[in-house]
Amino acid sequence: MFNDSLGEFSIKVICARIGRILENMPKGQGSFVSENKKSLSIALSIAILALIIYLVGPGKLISAFKGMEKKYFLFAVLIYLGTILLSAIRWSTLIGMVEKPVNCLSTFQLLTIDKLSNAFFPTSAVGITARTLLLQRKHGIMPSKGFATILLDYGFEMFASLALGIPIIILMHSKLSFSASGVLYLCMLLLGLGTLGVVLINTPKVSRKIEVIKTADGGSGILSRLTKHRLFSKALEFLTSFKVIVNYPFSSLNAMVISLCIKLSEALRLMMLFKAFGMGLPFYHFLLFEIVWVMISMFAITPGGIGAAESGKIAIFSMVPDVTTSAATPVVFIDRFITFWLILILGALFLLLSHRQYLFDNGSDNSSVYRSKWGEELGFMPLKA
Asked: Backbone dihedral region of 69: left (phi > 0), alpha (psi from -120 to 50 degrees) or beta?
């Protein structure tokens, strides 16, 4: 069995090594990777989980799970359900800024279906598509407006992380190692650049110039060429979604307050789980974990982040000198059970209810047509009756 220091080092570098392996593999059309992408991503997820368990030791994990205090686990579950409800209220608030208001219980269901959809792909695009389509079917909101509210939702998550990250840097500057400080500063820099981009793009002068370029047939300037680039145009679409904030300052303030409460509740959930395993840390450590995870989670390369999320969170928790890899691993596994596997069950139930309601509203008992269309829209293979 590996000792703690070796295991800690191995888990921290695992994602980097896997990334280098994938970069060196052929990516051309018809290559092995492109033809077996799904199978490889599933195999990679299983391999990462198996390696984590092997490095830490199955015996240590089982012993830690047996010694877990159940009351703190239950508190963590309830806190996470409250976090999802807060996220639903925030999204409902943002929908009301661009379209007719939607009940927060409905947005709660759609958020769990989003998480279910993302469990099968290494990207959030499928979940976003599911949310957009269901928002249109259940509430008659056009996909373009529904998509804009989801972009706003991600944006307020970014704003809240930046707002809480600044005081954390001040509090923890002298308590973190050089590498941990570097990761935190990098995350804050990226969040700051994103926020600055939102402000600059939505100033009247820049906004008018972009509209002129987008409607014009040609143009030879740098900005004109950038707007025709697919990646830049997507980033531009994200940034320009925030114009609506100016017209609804009170709702925007509500969304920001809710976003801050969401980050605090996420940190509180982690605090309860650490207590469940007999560990106590100052509250701002858990805020640090969540803020750093906001940025790192975007680079998950496995379906639902399985394996990549576990190894990434273990590495983040291990940045604190008092937390070893073997101590952090059971916390991460239980946290993923709550935030991933448990929510998948809720998402599946709500998706089934949504499916039944759709058939009932359309007076049909033949589900095969609906399932086929739903699968095609989300990128799945059509289900056979």
From this structure: beta
DSSP notation for 162-213: HHHHHHHHHHHTTTS-HHHHHHHHHHHHHHHHHHHHHHHHTSHHHHHHHHHH
Q: Which uninterrupted H or E stretch holds 326?
A: helix 325-336
DSSP letter string over 356-385?
HHHHHHTT---HHHHHHHHHHHHTPPPPP-
- Compute CA distances 112 → 67, 77, 85, 357, whole Å: 30, 15, 10, 17
* Token pair recorded at residue 90: 């925030």
Burial of 68 per CB tally in 10 Å (0-12, 13-18, 19+):
middle
Instruction: Look up the pTM and report it.
Output: 0.75
Cα atoms in the 13 Å half-sphere on the side-chain side of 245: 20
DSSP state at residue 73: H
Q: Give the separation between CA 125 and CA 115, rounded to whole angstroms.
A: 11
Cα Dmax for the chain: 67
Return the closest-CA partner of residue 327 out of 273, 264, 267, 269. Answer: 273
If we measure between CA atoms, which residue out of 10, 3, 11 comes closest to residue 310? 11
pLDDT digits (tens, 9 = 90+) for 103-162: 888 899 888 888 887 777 666 777 788 888 888 888 888 888 888 888 888 888 888 888
Angle at 381 between CA 378 and CA 112, to 5 degrees: 40
Cα gap 43→48, rounded to integer Å: 9
- A 10 A CB-CB count for 271 gives 23
Residue that the structure tokens 């906004």 belong to: 207
Place of tokens 């069950």: 345
| Torsion-angle region of 221 (φ positive above 0: left; ψ -120 to 50: alpha; else: beta) | beta
Position 273 scores a pLDDT of 94
Burial of 320 (0-12, 13-18, 19+ CB in 10 A): buried
Q: 130-144, 171-185, 262-276, 367-381 — which is least confidently predicted?
A: 367-381
Coarse DSSP helix, strand, coil percentages of the chain, rounded to the nearest 5 percent: 80, 0, 20
Q: Which residues contact 7 (CB under 8 A, 6 or more apart)?
A: 55, 56, 325, 326
Q: Within 13 Å, how many C-alpha atoms sit on residue 242's CB side?
A: 25
- Among residues 53, 120, 127, 45, the alpha carbon closest in space to that of 91 is found at 127
